[in-house]
Automatic annotation (TrEMBL):
Entry's EC annotation: 4.1.1.33
Annotated family: Belongs to the diphosphomevalonate decarboxylase family.
Residue ranges of domain Mvd1 C-terminal in the record: 176-310
Descriptive protein name: diphosphomevalonate decarboxylase
Record GO terms (molecular function): ATP binding; diphosphomevalonate decarboxylase activity
GO CC field: cytosol
GO biological process: isopentenyl diphosphate biosynthetic process, mevalonate pathway
SUPFAM superfamilies, sorted: GHMP Kinase, C-terminal domain, Ribosomal protein S5 domain 2-like
Pfam families: MDD_C, MVD-like_N
Location of the Diphosphomevalonate decarboxylase-like N-terminal domain: 9-164
Family annotation (InterPro entries): GHMP_kinase_C_sf, Mev_decarb, Mev_diP_decarb, MVD-like_N, Mvd1_C, Ribosomal_Su5_D2-typ_SF, Ribsml_uS5_D2-typ_fold_subgr
Assigned keywords, A-Z: ATP-binding, Lipid biosynthesis, Lipid metabolism, Lyase, Nucleotide-binding
Domain of life assignment: Bacteria
Amino acid sequence: MSNARKVRAYTNIALIKYWGKRDDALILPTSSSLSLTLDAFYTETAVSFDASCEKDTFYLNDKIQDEAATLKVSRFLNLFRETAGLKTPATIRSTNYVPTAAGLASSASGMAALAGAANLATGLNLSPQELSIFARQGSGSATRSVYGGFVEWQKGTSSADSYAVKVDDADWDIGMVVVVVNKKQKELSSREGMKQTVTTSPFYSGWVESTAVDLVNIKKAIRDQDFEQVGEITESNGMKMHGTMLGANPPISYWEPDSVVAMQLVRQLRKQGIPCYFTMDAGPNVKVLCRLSDSQKIKTAFLNYFNEEQLIISGPGSDLKEVSL
Ligand code: 2P0
């Protein structure tokens, strides 16, 4: 592991969702998306090339991984090896830092950290923009995890211009309370779920049209630091994504009864004058966008219905970075 250097990438939660690809192989999205990077959830990864090894070896949380998981990582590393003119096998050590097995281990921080570590190990010296393009080819949401704060993934016209840009540092009292409804692995992967939605949901064209409008509006609201407006657009965009999924055949729903409980609670808190807004992804967990200064109050209200370990407060995360071994 002599040449191993470790990179940390934070996960991100989309406020304007990515749900559908126009190119499956290159992972080019049908629409642009926008997220908030979170500091409570991240992945740290080190890659070292070693000519004395026969094949790639992948450790996740100190456990050696099976062939299928290793193959996914190997394929992604091949992008870097091809660019750097290398054929050497690698050892990959990755750790997911997710509070108390929250079930939020995410391909976003995972693939972004792997891209960052591969960049260092190959000596390619890629810019953050190039890194974002590489990360995208591992997993769409990883495109955005190269940066902290509010981040837009511009859908672009080709692989060369489909990357993330930072919109804002989100350093104006922004946070999230993540409500862990269920930490089990989801039954239908995002990849399959979005494919099924694109090909069968009659609402899909409406989703693509309206998400473009939401993106313009949320960027203005972020510029104006208009928190309520950011929250309203976030909540509406997330629900539209889930509505579009319900229109798929067979219908797709990631919700559980407690997801609905959490959303109701957010509405109640809002009525009581606390500005907070929910969003959900391809799973039953609910993410509550709020003022970081209100997050403890919101967590306390949720403790009437959920356990301490189901409620995780997070502030905005930072750019992908090298950390000491
Ligand atoms: C997002 N999600 O924008 C959306 C909203 C989930 C719901 O990106 O196939 O794991 O690897 O590109 O990135 C999850 O999808 O899918 C996701 P791939 P990914 O965050």
